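Hey, can you fold this one?
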Amino acid sequence: MASMYEQLMALPLFQGVSSERLSALVEKYPFHFLKFRAGEVIVEPDQPCTHVQFVVSGAAMAELRHRKLQVVLRQLLPAPNVLAPHHLFGLETSCPFGVTAHGECGVLQLRKSDYVSMVQVDKVFLFNILNYLSLHTQRLRSSLLTMSRGSVVERLAIYVGTFTTQLSQQVSLEYRQRDLCALLGVQRSVLTRTLDDLEQQGIVAQQVGVVEILDLPGLLALALE
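Sure. Predicted structure:
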């Protein structure tokens, strides 16, 4: 159980919380530990976010499908990680992506109402969630500007960066070429040349209809140059 506490304390929502305080909260609130086998569904696409869910062992695979275009973004979320916390509140409180277990996976979940109670009584939790949501909002604001006027590399980096985290691994895009071109607002020749350049830099690897992001920090850094 101690290792689980350490993993939770490494998450942005629990940073600054002592193991003693976290232990007391686990005893007070009904945290539920769920085990999933490989391939089992943890979250359905568009499922209402009624719980805060933490990957505390193993890893989960998240898949985001564009609603109108054949573009699929996949990412591996290893423990410790939190699933879609920025969709807990607001007008749209459904998870936009589906999540399945990648091998054996342990998930600790807490009802949203209980998490709200924790935020109300402990300022550390309040500041953590505010900082998390503010960072996400600021990234989205930058994304809108870059997606409309930035280079192809910047647009690709912003799209990937908006839906991934610093802990994301095995990030990939599966796409139909004309749809990815429509998403990024570029011609096919420009997209092909851009992906070839990124591959030569060791940032991506290409197969037919699939781009694997080998260096996610490196790709995101290109959007800030």
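The mean pLDDT is 87. Let me know if you want another pass with a different chain boundary.
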